[in-house]
Design goal:
This protein is α/β, with parallel strands linked by helices. Helices cover 36% and strands 25% of the residues. Strand 3 and strand 4 form a beta hairpin.
Length: 190
């Protein structure tokens, strides 16, 4: 992560997005958690925890919340998309004009694109042709991650450097992050 902490935007303030944002902040990253709805973002800012989706997991001081997508991703080293699969294409399309070329793009969204049945890497490749992407998946639960319980995930990318960078951001004493180049296998079996 270099001399200064990584800046990571987590897009999606549901239970899994919140848990991963808290984990990344606990690991020392400067995290901006993006939520789509102003009233939900206000509640997260006020309560400093996600009382709706992840109660009992307070936000570290280095985790901030915003409803402004451009603010969330501006200057970020990495963007982790954690929205429902039905919103995945819309969020990536909105993200495209504001995402900087060197920013790592990864997602922890599970499932297929509902209307077409496409795998999410196919959706991402259509919106961001030629860009390195990574998927984060594994047998884990938001509540357990929020409580610091042991778990493991895999980060898959065709770029080993991308997978290793994202895994390093996530990896901790209780959260093991492994790497793979099998994006399709992880999307289907993860």
């Amino acid at each position: 992560m270099g001399n200064s902490p990584a800046k990571i935007a987590v897009l999606g303030a549901g239970s899994w997005g919140t848990a991963l944002a808290v984990l990344l902040a606990r690991n020392g990253a400067k995290v901006l958690l993006w939520g789509h709805h102003e009233h939900e973002v206000y509640a997260l800012q006020r309560d400093r925890e996600n009382c709706t989706f992840l109660p009992g997991t307070p936000f570290p001081d280095n985790l901030d919340i915003t409803a402004d997508l451009q603010v969330a991703v501006s200057g970020s080293d990495a963007v982790l998309v954690v929205v429902p699969s039905h919103a995945f294409a819309e969020v990536l399309t909105t993200l495209k004009p504001v995402l900087q070329p060197g920013t790592l793009l990864s997602w922890a969204t599970k499932g297929l694109e509902p209307v077409t049945g496409r795998l999410l890497h196919e959706v991402a490749e259509e919106i961001f042709p030629g860009r390195s992407v990574a998927v984060v998946a594994g047998p884990s639960f938001a509540k357990e991650v929020g409580k610091g319980r042991p778990t493991a995930i895999t980060v898959a990318s065709s770029s080993q450097a991308h997978a290793e960078s994202m895994a390093n951001y996530l990896h901790s004493d209780y959260f093991r992050a492994y790497t793979s180049q099998d994006i399709i296998g992880l999307e289907i079996g993860g």
